[in-house]
Specification:
Length: 330
């Protein structure tokens, strides 16, 4: 199908109009003076990185924070508890492995009991990466990635939503990635899982409009966190069990598996924690669906703008139109 010049110009104009409209929307701003007293926040994946930093940041600004992680007891949990006790922070460590139905249900119930009701904010931060060519990525690795990066956030959302809907308020923040909108070769199924998370989150955002529950997706660039240590462990294990019939087509890429080093990255992981705080501080109904976070280039921005326009053009006048417009025309 061919597009004439008029159609292309019309599409460009519509994209520019939408970009201008979104530029006028309220943008999240972080300041140390933000006060989250009275807010309950549950964050997954708090043993290190974005989750650990966000848990401390929000607790220091008054929130009741439920910092969750898997594999308790562990030193990271003890460190968080000691800090909370020393600095009198309202921070509680709960064991949740997001791949476990039982731990998700029990952990959320424990948090809701301590909060005295529904959780105000869920931050789905737990995630993993495994680096390999797609052909080399076996079903064990594939299932682990989808269980953690897609099914985990789904489990968590299902666990908190009944309470949020009953309350008629709430917020879900999903930690995605630039690679949830653009694709880098040899990153295994990481992009596939983050693309799935993005789609699921956008659908949730539409469906939760009537319940006054906001969904936002943070899309970080590359940051020097412990995710690289874990990624190398998973990638090395995959390399050791991989079959030659799959690896022999990618000798250079397979040789590099398990040797990645993110320490050379200079971006401050606190950027993501501050973005989370900024989103929480915004008035309900004004929070953006997607928030790219990284200094410098953000390759997903034009993709986000075009897909928002397509959604509104396609569904804006349908029965789903009010839901779609409520999310994209903020």
């Amino acid at each position: 199908m061919s597009l004439d010049r008029r159609a292309l110009l019309a599409g460009a104009a519509a994209t520019a109009a939408l970009a201008a409209q979104r530029a006028q929307a309220v943008e999240p701003v972080y300041t140390p003076q933000l006060n989250f007293k009275g807010k309950s926040v549950l964050i997954t994946g708090c043993s290190s990185g974005f989750g650990r930093i966000a848990a401390e940041l929000l607790a220091r600004q008054g929130a009741k924070v439920f910092a969750t992680m898997r594999g308790l007891p562990r030193a990271e949990a003890d460190s968080l508890r000691m800090m909370a006790l020393k600095d009198r922070l309202d921070l509680h460590v709960i064991e949740i492995d997001v791949t476990s139905d039982q731990q998700v249900a029990e952990g959320v119930a424990q948090a809701e009991l301590a909060a005295g009701g529904a959780i105000d904010v869920l931050v789905n931060n737990a995630g993993i990466g495994i680096t390999s060519p797609v052909e080399v990525q076996d079903m064990e690795a594939t299932r682990l990635m989808f269980e953690t990066n897609v099914f985990g956030p789904h489990r968590m959302a299902r666990a908190v939503l009944p309470g949020m809907r009953k309350k008629g308020a709430g917020q879900i923040i999903q930690i995605s990635s630039q690679l949830g909108r653009v694709i880098s070769p040899y990153s295994g199924h990481y992009s596939a899982t983050k693309f799935a998370l993005e789609a699921m989150s956008e659908q949730l955002a539409y469906e939760l409009v009537p319940h006054k529950i906001d969904v936002s997706i943070i899309e970080p660039g590359g940051y020097p966190t412990k995710v690289w240590v874990n990624r190398n462990a998973y990638s090395q294990a995959l390399k050791e069990r991989a079959e030659a019939q799959h690896t022999d087509g990618y000798p250079q890429q397979v040789a590099a598996m398990g040797t990645e080093d993110g320490s050379g990255r200079s971006n401050d992981p606190a950027d993501v924690a501050k973005a989370i705080a900024g989103l929480i501080a915004l008035p309900p109904g004004t929070r953006p669906l997607r928030l790219p976070v990284a200094p410098g280039n953000k390759p997903q921005v034009p993709i986000n703008e075009v897909t928002a326009r397509v959604q509104v053009d396609w569904l804006g006048n349908s029965r789903a139109g009010p839901l779609v417009r409520a999310v994209h025309e903020r």
